[in-house]
Q: What sequence folds into this?
């Protein structure tokens, strides 16, 4: 799949200091690029009330993505440590 990056995603990655999380994110992005759909990726769940927003779990962090079934492009929205604020814009 083709990957686009939102400004919020870029900001969240720029703030990231956890080297293991950065490594996991790079591996996940490589898997997303190689995949034909999100069904090929592990630990993916859709967000309630947002049919095109999905979260992908990587350790203590969550990657929020926007994806439409059959689309060739995925938009990375945010990468953040799991806490109460992680889903604030999507609940």
A:
């Amino acid at each position: 799949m083709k990957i686009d990056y939102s400004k919020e995603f870029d900001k969240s990655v720029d703030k990231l200091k956890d080297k293991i999380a950065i490594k996991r994110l790079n591996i996940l992005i490589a898997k997303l690029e190689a995949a034909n759909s999100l069904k090929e990726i592990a630990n993916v769940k859709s967000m309630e009330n947002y049919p095109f927003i999905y979260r992908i779990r990587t350790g203590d962090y969550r990657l929020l993505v926007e994806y439409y079934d059959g689309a060739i492009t995925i938009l990375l929205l945010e990468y953040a440590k799991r806490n109460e604020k992680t889903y604030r814009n999507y609940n």
